[in-house]
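Notes continue from the previous slide.

Worked example: a multi-chain complex. Inputs as given:
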Amino acid sequence: MTGLSFKGYRDPALSRLKELGISVWADVVLKTTHGTFEGIVLPRSETEDEFHIVLKLKSGYNVGVRADSVTEARQVGHKEAIYKIPESEFPTDPSRPDVSLFGTGGTIASRLDYRTGAVIPAFTPGELYGAVPELADICNLKTEKLFGVFSENMGPEQYVVTAKAVAAEIEKGVKGIVIGHGTDTLHHTASILSFMLQDLPVPVVLVGSQRSSDRPSSDAALNLRNAVKTAAECDIAEVMVCMFGPTSDQYALLHRGTRVRKMHSSYRSTFRTIGDIPLAMVSQENGFHHLRDDYNRRRDDTRLKLNTAFEEKVSIVYYYPNMKPDIIEALVDNGYKGIVIAGTGLGHVNKPLYPALAKCRDAGVAVYMTVQTLWGYVHMRVYETGRDMIKLGVVEAENMLPEVAYMKLCWVLGQTTEPGEVRELMLNPIAGEITDREPPNGYLVYQGGVPEVEEFISRTLR
Amino acid sequence: MTGLSFKGYRDPALSRLKELGISVWADVVLKTTHGTFEGIVLPRSETEDEFHIVLKLKSGYNVGVRADSVTEARQVGHKEAIYKIPESEFPTDPSRPDVSLFGTGGTIASRLDYRTGAVIPAFTPGELYGAVPELADICNLKTEKLFGVFSENMGPEQYVVTAKAVAAEIEKGVKGIVIGHGTDTLHHTASILSFMLQDLPVPVVLVGSQRSSDRPSSDAALNLRNAVKTAAECDIAEVMVCMFGPTSDQYALLHRGTRVRKMHSSYRSTFRTIGDIPLAMVSQENGFHHLRDDYNRRRDDTRLKLNTAFEEKVSIVYYYPNMKPDIIEALVDNGYKGIVIAGTGLGHVNKPLYPALAKCRDAGVAVYMTVQTLWGYVHMRVYETGRDMIKLGVVEAENMLPEVAYMKLCWVLGQTTEPGEVRELMLNPIAGEITDREPPNGYLVYQGGVPEVEEFISRTLR
C-alpha cells in the first residue's frame, strides 16, 4: 500500500485527519485536550465508530483518540505494516472426519495482527488454521467461497447455489457441512435449506458471529469451533443453526433450522428457538448434551433429497391496526402468487381487508395465516371473524413462524399452484416447522438442562 | 327466548342437534357410544368448541357430549332458564376513590349462572359488582361503553373517541381510568394513547383477558381487580397495560404503554415488556411492588395534554429476503406519507429496495427503520449498506418497537409533514418509547423481584 490511505475512517474522524495532514501508517505526535500521544495511525475496520483515530503506541497497545480532541499533529515518520497470515498448512489426519466449510459472505474468522492491531480475514484452511488452530484437532477441513454477499442480500439465487453445493459435497462423502453466514438472515437461509435438503445423512450447520473477531467479546472463533465440531461429530443430521448460548460462552446451542429466529439486534445470544426447545447444547470440553431425541440420525450413506424449487412472487404482510386493503390488492395486481399474513392474536386482521382477501381467493393467490406474537398457534375458529376468513380461503399455518411460512410457501409454490396440493405440502411438516404442541419451557426463553444454566439463572435472581 | 334456539352451536354439533330434533333448553335423554346422559341442553359461548353438546345434568354438573357419539335422543321436556344478573347496586363510599371504566368491546367480566351453566356478560357497575364483588372494596365505580368492536378492528376513530373520553373523565376529577380491551391490539391502543394523552395526573390502565370468564383458568376477574386497584391506588400516572404475570396468578405486571407487546397467541402471560423491565407488579394482597422509579407521578390536579392527531396513510413494511421494490413503490403511488420498516439485524433491507427508498425520499414519504428482532437498537452506521440507506433518507428509530413507531408516526404526521419537525418529534421520547439503554434483564423475559418468581423459576429448573 503506498500513497495516502485513510482506510476505514469515516467522518468526522476522516475530515479531521485530512485537516491535520496525516493518514494511515503515519508515525505521529498528537496533542489533545487530554494529553499528548505518540504512535502509528492504524487503519480501522468497517464496524468501528467514526469518532476516533486509533494509534499503535510504542508500548504495543492501541489507543483511540477522539478526533475532535486533537489540537495539533506532528508527523515524525511513516511505518506501513505489511501483513499476511502465516501460510501454515492445515494438518491432515486420516483418522479425523472430513468437513467442508462454505463461505457466503462476511468474515468467518479473522486473525488479529498484534503488531498493527489490524484484522486479517481468514478463510482458506491454512488461514483458518492460523486463526483458530483448534480446528485441526477436530477434522480435516476443506473450504470453498460460494459468493460474497451481505446477509440481507441473500435470495433464491444464493439458496439454490448453496443447496446444490452442500448436496454435491455430501454425495462425495464428507462427514458434515458448515456454512458461514451473516447473522441478519441466517435463520431465513436455515429454513429454506431445511426444505431444499431433506433426509440428510450428515449435519448441515449454519454459523455466524454477532461481534467481529477484532473485538475482545467476539463470538466468531467460539461459534466456528462449535459448528465444526457439530458438523464433524454430532449425530443430528439436520439443517441447524449453531450459535452462542443464551447465558454463558461455555456452550453453543444447536437450533433446528425451521424454529429459530434472530431476537436481538446486537447481543451474541441473539438466536433463539421459538415455541420449542433447541436440539442440543455443544461445548468443546463436554461435547453434546441432547435436549430432545426426536431428530433425524446421522447415517453412513451419502444419499439425500435435493429440491431447489422456489417461487419468487411471495410476500409477508404484517398486519397493523387500520391497515387498508390497498396493500394486499397491490400484491394481487402485481402478480403475487402467495401471501403469508402475520396476524394479531390467534390470527386476525380487520374487516376492511376481507374484500382484498376475496380478491386473493378469486385470483388464486395462496394466503396463509401466521401469528405476529411469534409464540403460539394460529387458531381462527375461535371467533366468528376468524371463521369468516377461513371461508375467504385463508389457511391456518399452525405454529409456523412467519418467515418460515414465507420460505416454505416460496418452495411449495415453486412446485405446484394447485390449492389442494399447496395446502397438503404446506401443512405437512417436513423439518419440524409445525409441531403438535409447544413445550412449557418453549415460551420466551429456553432454560435449564445443564448446571451452568441453572447456576446463571439463580445468580441473576440475586 | 322462545322457539328453537341453537345459541352458540356450530357445525358439526349444530347439524347433529338438528338431525336429532333437539335444541337449546330441551330436557333430553341422549344415548351415546359411551353411555346414556339425561339433562338440559345448554347454550354455548362463542369461544367454545364445535364438537360437543353440553348438558346440565340433574346433579347440577355440566357435561360435554361429543355430538358424533350420540346415537339417539329423546326429548322429555323443556326448561328454559331465564337469567339476569342480580341488580345489586354498586356500594358507594365517599372515602374510596372514584374510578371510571370504559368498555371498547369484548367481555370485561362475566358471571357464571350456576343453574344453567350459561355466561352472562357483566358491564354495568351493578353487574360487575355481582360478578366481581371485591371491586367495591377498592373504589366507587362508574362504567361507560364507548363502542363494541373486536380488537383487530380498532382504529383511529376509536382511539380519538377513547382519548377524549378519558381526558373528559380525568378533568372531572376521577382518580383513575380503566379501559377494557380485546387483547389482539391492546398494545397498539396503549401506545397511541401514550402519545395522545400526556402529562397525566392519574393512571390510565388498559386491561383484557386471554381466557373467557366461563373457563376455570380465566384471567378476566383477576386482571380486572388488579387493573381497578392500579387505577384507584397506584402512584404511576401513565398509560399502562395491566395483565397476568409471567409465572403465577399471584400478581399482575404493569407494563409501560409504549414498551409492551403481545407475545403468545394463547397463553395468559402473553403481554411482555420488550427491551426493558415492567414498571411494577401488583397484587390484591401485597399492593404494588415497584420495579423502577423513573415514572410520571400521580398528582392532585386534573390537568393533562390531549392531542388526538392521526394520519392514516402510514404503513409497516416487514422486510424478508428477496423483497422486491414494488411493495414500497405501491405505497408511494397510493399516497402513503409514512413507512415504518421492520428490517433485519441492526436495521437492514436488500439493495434492490434502494431505488424504492429513493422514490420515498423524492416523494417526501417519511421512512423510519426499526428492527424485527424486537429486542435491541437500530444501528445503521455499522455497515456501509446501512449508511447508504441513511443517505436515502431512512431514519433510525432507535429501540422503538415496530408497532409503536407506526403509531407514533401516524400521530406525528397528523401534526406536521415537514421532515425536520417529523424527525424531531419522532426521535424525542415522550412516553418511554425510546430508552438510552436496555437493562440486562430486559432481554426475552423479565424475571425476579419477588419471592414467588424466584421460587417458580427454581421449580421449573428441577
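Summary box: Chain B touches chain A through 83 residues (CB under 8 Å). Chain B has three domains: 13-78, 98-306, 314-427.
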